[in-house]
Design a protein that fits this description.
This protein is α+β, with helices and mostly antiparallel strands and 98 residues long. It is built from three helices and two strands, in the order E-H-E-H-H.
């Protein structure tokens, strides 16, 4: 490169915990979520490669919650600043015939 600054980000994934397997059930993966202690280690850059790999484990299922959100969230016209778009949403399915 010619010294140009490039701003970017990456999402590191790991094996899904049981809750996230239900959501991302095709590839069974989830974003890495670091515990507070792990955040400092990761950003410091002083951690060995082996220790860094140990930080990239699935987050505890008991510390997560999940709910369905409005289908509009995936629309390009969705307003990402609308707090209602991530509130729990219940799909209304027609009743069974039999």
């Amino acid at each position: 490169m010619d010294g140009e600054e490039v701003r970017s980000c990456s999402i590191i994934t790991t094996k899904a915990n049981p809750l996230m397997e239900l959501i991302h059930n095709t590839k069974k993966r989830m974003p890495v979520i670091l515990e507070k202690e792990g955040e400092k280690e990761w950003v410091s850059g002083d951690t060995s490669l082996l220790k860094r790999k140990q930080l990239l484990l699935p987050f505890k299922e008991s510390d997560l919650e999940a709910h369905t959100v409005m289908p509009q969230l995936s629309s390009s016209k969705a307003n990402p600043t609308d707090p209602n778009i991530i509130k729990p949403f219940e799909h209304l399915f027609p009743g069974k015939l039999f």
